[in-house]
Design brief:
Elements lengths: L44 E2 L2 H4 L24 E10 L7 E2 L2 E10 L12 E7 L6 E5 L10 E10 L2 E9 L13 E12 L4 E13 L9 H4 L9 E7 L6 E8 L11 H4 L16 E9 L7 E11 L6 E8 L2 E8 L13 E7 L7 E2 L5 E4 L8 E6 L4 E10 L5 E7 L1 E8 L2 E10 L4
Parallel strand pairs: 1-14, 2-7
Antiparallel strand pairs: 2-4, 3-4, 4-5, 5-6, 7-8, 8-9, 9-10, 11-12, 12-13, 13-14, 15-16, 16-17, 17-18, 17-19, 20-21, 21-22, 21-23, 23-24
GO molecular function: levansucrase activity; metal ion binding
GO biological process, one term: carbohydrate utilization
Cofactor: Ca(2+)
Length: 438
């Protein structure tokens, strides 16, 4: 069944003017009002093909080359998708002077390309936000849902940590690349620290808090005919300062059997004359989803319509996250070159949008949405960028070309990049130390 394109109920744009004497000066035209929506309205913004056709790299949005002699945080595990301990306002949190981050990890004995099927959430701590000590697995064996854990987020409330994650694979399914089931899960625990280290207790009670419903978000069963893995993953938790509710962003796909979606005029946008949309663009239906908690306990969650769709543009809008600044909502997501729909091309990197509210008419940053992409001569050097409210961008090192024509696998944190964020424009300014996440 096709999911109808959400359009929302538009607010009235104009009011009738008052009659005035003929000699009176004409009333100044009223400023157009930006439509306002609540989290549970059905308006979904669009990243269109017309936007994506504007993608272009320059020095303001191209990451510097990663040196092949980069340092490694630990030789015990590969490290990739990484997120800091935060407060519900999305700002990074410290605990008793310690900085804490979480990451997907797998033993370095596992081939780098197979790491996703062995992934567990590990944690790290540091006094200076860059000299990280690996603390081991966050969860005890056998407690988490799924057969592996994929990316999520972690919020600190008092000394209690709410750890959201993707339960990937069926429960106790083992290492099986053909089992891509994804559900959103939550476990709660407590953080502890002394002068030498950080540790956690609890995380025994895990719950599935959201699953794809087939009406708003594509299910595993609906996705089977698609060329690229479906998504219902990467929960990012935050409190909206306007409605004061706790929400989750996540990566999803438009509901319906893969290949039955029909690209709309809104998906396509104002493209140049002669632009043809290949028929198989219909398989590319990425979106940024939303779920809302029924209260601060975060016990129960309601699926909401997507905030933004990339139908006929991109299949994957991974690890969505939010920065709220100067009354504007900056929505970021990461994506790959290979997940763009046919007829479009982008880069492995981070893309962004700006809107007037959590749910609103998001517009692509820089006109196309490209914020930072890998250089052409190192197209997979780093990935999984995470933009923090302070403008710093962390990511992990993926596959780096070497001088002899080979490659070096990373599995560790890249240099932190500094982003200028003003209005609807972004600009890379410089880079800092490896893995600096304050």
């Amino acid at each position: 069944m096709l999911l109808r394109l959400a359009t929302g109920v538009m607010a009235l744009a104009a009011l009738g003017g008052l009659a005035t004497p003929a000699s009176a000066a004409p009333a100044a035209p009223s400023k157009p009002q930006t439509p306002q929506y609540s989290a549970d309205d059905d308006y979904t913004a669009v990243w269109s093909r017309a936007d994506a056709l504007k993608l272009k790299q320059d020095k303001t949005n191209t990451a510097p080359r990663v040196s092949p002699d980069f340092p490694v945080i630990t030789d015990k595990v590969w490290q990739w998708d990484t997120w800091p301990l935060t407060k519900l306002d999305t700002k990074t949190a410290t605990y008793r002077g310690w900085h804490v981050i979480f990451a997907l990890t797998a033993p370095r004995s596992v081939p780098f390309g197979d790491r996703h099927w062995y992934a567990k959430i590990g944690y790290y701590y540091s006094r200076d936000a860059k000299s990280w000590k690996y603390g081991g697995d966050l969860f005890q064996p056998g407690t988490a849902f799924g057969s592996r854990q994929w990316a999520g987020s972690a919020a600190l409330v008092g000394d209690k940590v709410y750890s959201f994650y993707t339960a990937s694979g069926h429960d106790n399914g083992g290492v099986n690349p053909n089992d891509p089931l994804q559900r959103l899960a939550l476990a709660t625990g407590r953080i502890h620290a002394d002068t030498t280290h950080v540790w956690f207790t609890g995380f025994q009670d895990h719950r599935i808090i959201a699953q794809a419903d087939g009406k708003l978000y594509q299910t595993l069963e609906q996705s089977q005919q698609g060329p690229i893995i479906y998504a219902f993953r990467d929960p990012f938790v935050f409190r909206d300062p306007r409605d004061r509710k706790v929400h989750l962003l996540f990566e999803g796909n438009t509901a319906g059997v893969a290949g039955t979606y029909q690209c709309t005029k809104r998906d396509i946008g104002d493209v140049p004359y002669g632009h043809q949309v290949p028929d198989n663009a219909k398989y590319y239906t990425g979106n940024i989803g939303l779920a809302t908690a029924d209260g601060d306990s975060m016990d129960h969650w309601k699926l909401q319509p997507p905030l933004l769709s990339a139908n006929c543009v991109n299949q994957q809008t991974e690890r969505p996250h939010l920065v709220i600044r100067d009354g504007k909502y900056y929505l970021f997501t990461i994506s790959h070159k290979f997940t763009f729909a046919p007829g479009l091309s982008g880069w492995d990197g981070v893309y962004g949008f700006v809107g007037p509210a959590l749910r609103g008419d998001y517009q692509p940053l820089n006109g196309s949405a490209l914020v930072l992409g890998n250089p052409e001569d190192a197209p997979t050097q780093q990935y999984s960028h995470y933009v923090m409210p302070n403008g710093l961008v962390e990511s992990f090192i993926d596959t780096v070309p070497t001088a002899d024509g080979g490659t070096r696998f990373g599995g560790t944190l890249a240099r932190t990049l500094v982003l200028s964020l003003r209005g609807n424009r972004t600009r890379l300014t410089h880079q800092l130390d490896y893995g600096f996440i304050p």
